[in-house]
Amino acid sequence: MRAPEVLAGGEAFRLAREEISTGARFTLSGDVDAASAEMILRALEEKAGEGEAAEFLLEEAEITDGPAAARMVDAARLLLARFRRVRLVRAPQALAHSLYRVGMLRPGSRIEMVEPREEEGRAN
Fold this sequence. Notes:
- By secondary structure, this protein is α/β, with parallel strands linked by helices.
- Helix content is 32%, strand content 38%.
- It is globular.
């Protein structure tokens, strides 16, 4: 099995892609602001590939602002255009809420939200 290919990254985040039997698995980690989200979207446009299914692992990712969440919705749309099914695993609440608000999580949708994260409290 090949090591994941890093598609985009900087000091604060990393996006990697690996082949799986049904398509591709993407792993995003770190803090994603609007500029980072734009880099992620461009990388997916160039290198997402296509197939039956895409799995996007988001447990280690934090969406830091509204514009970043909007660009990540665009990234989910791009994956839906290239893959028959998309699973978002442990998505940050900001992304899950944005996808819900734009109607992408309706019953029968080709996108599946798996265990979205709750907003974590912060100590004062």
